[in-house]
Protein 1
Amino acid sequence: MSERIRPGERVEVTEVGPRDGLQNEKVVPSTAAKIAFIEALVDAGARQIEVGSFVSPRWVPAMADSEAVFAGLTRQPGVRYLALVPNQHGYQRAVAAGCDAVAVFTAASEGFARANINTTIAQSLSEFRGLAAQARAEGVAVRGYVSTVFACPYDGPTRPEQVVPVVEELLAMGCYEVSLGDTIGVGTPSHVERLLDAVLARVPAECVVMHFHDTWGMGAANAWRALELGVRRFDASAGGLGGCPFAKVATGNVATEDLLYLFANAGLETGYDLAKVARAVRGLAGLLDHPLASRVHKALGPV
Ligand code: HMG
Ligand code: MG
């Protein structure tokens, strides 16, 4: 059943570009360039931003400088600076670096859990339960991710019934919201509807975030369907950068600029300045091994 989208409503867009966007780049911008990118995105309006990840630097070399990125940031009040962590070791590193919140991540499919974090879904949830209890005691907020919510590059299609219990587990252990990842970007509005019918029957929409990758160009259409179904939280990556080293078919995340354009034209409030996001992306020009092919830069002209 669709809900009316009312102009003036607030939509939260979490900026994941500095982590999901850059983790897969072959040529990685310097620590200083990452810091400039993050600060520019915060200046553009990001109020929750994923700064980096505290994973094995052997597995994801592009995020090896996350401590230095946190150390070099000039922080702004009212902004939640997030760090992605796979385990207790990552949690300790993230807290020592000064993050405001950690994001734990697992999957709806065993094949991806094994490839991405070298464990089973059940083992990852058990690790996160201990981590979340410690975080609660230490006043650190915890966010959850469930990957491969529509399909897995190893196991094939994912059923909504595989997703729902993982979301419930993450919320039960204290995650303030859970992001549902279309890791390989194969979902369509029909997939979104099937999944959200199942998820929103069990958990409040305020706790649900949609995280789209744009392999088939469906990211904005998927976000619109999720909006119609009552979701008001989205992840996005400036410039549409992104991918996952453990899902080779994944392309970039849905671009922050595309979602902002969609939401602004529906009269929704995000607090972002689209031209400033485009300018933040321009700051990466020449620092990657590919041109930044964002449509937005053509549409906006010089920003
Ligand atoms: P493992 O090799 O099974 O771990 O990796 P281990 O516990 O056997 O440890 C092996 C070595 O790694 C040890 O060092 C540990 O100390 C070290 P050694 O004794 O060999 O010198 N280690 C660590 N070092 C630094 N930080 C840590 C850490 N943990 C262990 N936190 C592990 C397991 C989870 C660490 C590994 O699989 C890993 O790092 N995976 C990275 C996964 C990743 O970052 N994937 C991309 C992000 S997820 C994503 O993109 C999806 C998302 O966007 C949503 C979506 O789109 O669906 C979130
Ligand atoms: Mg992702």
Note: The longest strand covers residues 101-107.
Protein 2
Amino acid sequence: MKILGIETSCDETAAAVVEDGIKILSNVVVSQIDIFAEYGGVIPEVAARSHLEAILPVIDKALADARCRWGDIDAIAVTHAPGLLGSLLIGTLTARALAILYDKPLYAVHHLKSHVYANWVIGGQAESVLSSAGLEFSSTSYAGHPGKTARKGSFLGAVRNIRVENPNQGFMLQKEQIPACPTFPLLALVVSGGHTQILHMQEHNQFEIIGTTIDDAIGECFDKVAKILGLPYPGGPSIAKAALDGDAGKYEFPHPKVDGLDFSFSGLKTAVLRAVQKEVGVPISYPSHKLKELLNPQQVADFAASFQKAAVDILVEKLEKALGQYPDTQSVVVAGGVSANQALREALPEAYFPSPSLSGDNGAMVAGACFFEIQSGVKPVDPYKINIYPRISIEK
Ligand code: KG4
Ligand code: ZN
């Protein structure tokens, strides 16, 4: 089954053709980063206009790269929630026009589901979905999925460590060879510009939110801290790059005390702001956008590295707590733009990560998620009635 996936929820115009939810035949992403780097952030109206210009050429290229004609496409999948209203509109209106024109079933997909399913798609630029940190890769292809390698070694070693520390938690997973695809039940750590959640998945297409941020999302926090440090938009990759030359132990930031499996990141952002003010010797009333002028490159690198370490540690701590509460967990998958972060990948060597090229927004993950939705009985939407939801939970 060949599905055309269309994604326009934020500032990437993307389309891809994926076969059977797994094999990427094409994956075209046009990013608007260049435009928004000038402004230091996304301007929704500009994003929508850029999508409008790019969407049809992007879809044409996705079909051409996949060597497909419209007759070869079995369904169209489009992101309809959550995201920027104008951006979502361009994708859904285009998808519905094409569905009507070419008489294709149309599926409306939730953006976070798509991010999670980026862990299943392979091929094209997405050769390997596994974290490279501390792992041994076997050259054996996985069950007819060329490019996907089976991973050898212990599984969820981090969890076993918790088990040792907390002997009362009856939780132990040991597998000599783990499958190339995540297995259920699983926990998904969703880390993006708009969301920070831990999801429990009993099965395909079953999502239960067991932890969520009570304020800022992690990606948003990276972006805001980057601004304080004078690093370019988007902040996540800029911080990761600057951190390479920094000392992660230079500054210590407190971890928020949030109940259960929920997160909070606004305090961390403020803690960085206060530490920078202290470092350069200005009062807390000093305008934050001027701080960058007082920082030297080494200080920027040290703040970037120390902040990144704190952010990653907070994620890992909560994930470990979640694993303690869900002892039947078979796999951990990480999803969303922040899953591109190398420090996070190294901190979770036993988890599944999308190929870095599929961590950010793309159409392949939309098509992938759609395939598994269809498998679990989800029906197409009426193209004349498709709706967008800028803010809606994955559980709805
Ligand atoms: O998933 P995504 O592309 O868009 C949303 O659905 O929000 O995530 C974008 C977020 C941005 O906040 C960006 O700064 C962050 O992902 N990001 C990173 C990295 N690459 C992108 N954060 C940390 N490290 C990275 N390497
Ligand atoms: Zn996203």
Note: Residues 2-118+357-375 form a domain with the Nucleotidyltransferase; domain 5 fold (CATH 3.30.420.40).
Protein 3
Amino acid sequence: MMQGKTILLGVTGGIAAYKAAALCSRLTQAGANVHVIMTEAATKFITPLTLQTLSRNAVHVDTFDERDPSVVSHIDLADHADFVVIAPATANAIAKLAGGFGDDMLSTTLLAATCPILIAPAMNVHMYEHPAVVRNMELLASRGVMFVEPGTGQLACGYVAKGRLAEPEDIVAAVEQWFGRGGLLKGKKLLVTAGGTIERLDPVRYLTNDSSGKMGFAIAEAASLMGAEVTLVAGRVSVKPPAGVRLIEAPSAAEMLEAVTALFPEADLTVKAAAVADYRPLAVSEHKMKKSGDKLILELERTTDILQTLGEMKQPHQLLVGFAAETENLEQYAMDKLWRKNCDLVAVNPVNRPGAGFNGDTNLLFIYDSNGLVEELPLLSKREAARRLLDIAVERLKDVGRDRA
Ligand code: CTP
């Protein structure tokens, strides 16, 4: 998919710059014509010669080092690029692009580039979570810049946290996804729910579940790489939501119902990956509950089924995808949910099988439509499972409305 495409690889000055060598090599092997631009700071971590050898193209560092008098390098590079990847992207590089600065070869080229831009941030976790960095990423996302989330793990600064550059294969997969699937959801509005809900008992206690939000986040990230305008409604989550999507926090089932029903009429595709509580405490104590007696019996009431509500609101042009966590009778329960909640697709997690379900980075998805099993996906990363689910949804979106109109 990248064969013959011209990719600009921007490398900025963080320790993860050494991984740019593997990334450059993979992009070149995939058939792309890679032109590397490094910041001065990046050259302190990895030499231009390394990237020149791997890309087989001259590496650009200095804006004024004009080697070919027939062109202005930063404009020429920008004009010929089909795609830009910045990996690793430091907080400074992100800020410069958000602010429109052009004070070195990379930033001036980025200002001149009209092609899609993908950013793979890498930095210390506190820097990544700094409000200024968050705001800059949101600003860039609102301009259509795409992001590959950093991973969680050992950071060079000693922290074990989020901020590690995504693995080169994940970055390549994101680029491939854009070339292969880039325009597939262009102009489409996607609504995704993710995470568990919290149902309060009193100001300090609540009922919740093990959902991490990872599956819904992977769907949101994949859809935004496919060109969709994504709104993510998140309950209680244990990981940071992906950059590049509009985030609405709705911690309880009632708040999620309100947010989702307000947004649903605008959505072309809605994926309900959230693990919404089926019951909530009947009474919420205003003050911290004091212990008394040996037993405490909680009275719970049913929450409104959001998916079912959306199924009732659904218009012919809209596609609705539900999730179901099951341990047995997968097909029977999936089909029951599909009909009862008026879904177009139901993705079942067989949560009792190794590698599937809550909290992990992998998942098993069995996907059903009104005719039964559509596809049984093998054990995949949640990112890849999200892409495959969206591929199926995209096919259905083409027909949706036509059948039912
Ligand atoms: N769901 C919802 N609102 C609820 C409960 C669930 O929208 N109050 C949605 C979830 O987002 C998910 C699907 O419904 O898409 C899961 O269906 P559900 O019937 O809740 O699954 P289980 O909890 O596994 O149901 P059951 O107890 O019937 O097995």
Note: Residues 100 and 161 are 30 Å apart (CA to CA).
Protein 4
Amino acid sequence: MFIAVEGIDGSGKSTTITELERYIKSKNREVIVTAEPTTLQSGRIIRDFLDKKNVGTPLIHEMMALSFAADRINHLREIIWPALKKKRVVITDRYFFSSLAYQSLNISYEWVKGINRFAMMPDILVFIDVSLKTAMDRLNRFRNETEIYEQQDMLAQIDRNYKTVLNDFAERVKTIHLDGELKPSEIYGDIELKFSDVNF
Ligand code: ADP
Ligand code: TYD
């Protein structure tokens, strides 16, 4: 089973994924957690670009989009497919839905979709619903460095783009919405409730 977790920056993805991993382990399934951009060479190049030192410098957006897609091919080949073959449950923190929401800030949605056609559909898309205010508060409170996509007006547009993505894929992937406004101690209960009909 392949699960992609998505949400805007500050939605609490990492925190939620830790709880989801704990839940799946309680079902006696082996699970691996992985993320995009990856820790592979292709992902390290992207992280370097995303660093705050590049805020304000012109980015070649098509190159960024192609880099995320290239890293994704590596991710599937090197990490995701081998783990799925071993019957592990795979959770990825971000997947091609992120490219659709973030890279379509600057380039056409259809173009970004086109270069990601190779990416297999996950079995489940988990989307964390959070208000912009909560996300921004968390980013301001807990972070001392800001990546290039974490500024408020950009986050608002990314949030709108995610709505488009969710609509676009509503018929093609089982989507589970988690409540990103909950306290960390309440997240596990939300997962238990919303995953109760999922057969691991
Ligand atoms: P993301 O991976 O989406 O950027 P994180 O899980 O890293 O989000 O959370 C961003 C920050 O907000 C972290 O410092 C974390 O401690 C805090 N945080 C995450 N989830 C919650 C929550 N449910 N309630 C309060 N704070 C949270
Ligand atoms: P991530 O590490 O998830 O951010 P954080 O841990 O700070 O929440 O992702 C880094 C940034 O990369 C994030 O702002 C979203 C962006 N991103 C894209 O723009 N396109 C993509 O395809 C992916 C996977 C991430």
Note: The pocket of adenosine-5'-diphosphate (ligand 1) is lined by residues 7, 9-15, 138, 142, 182-184 (CB under 6 Å).
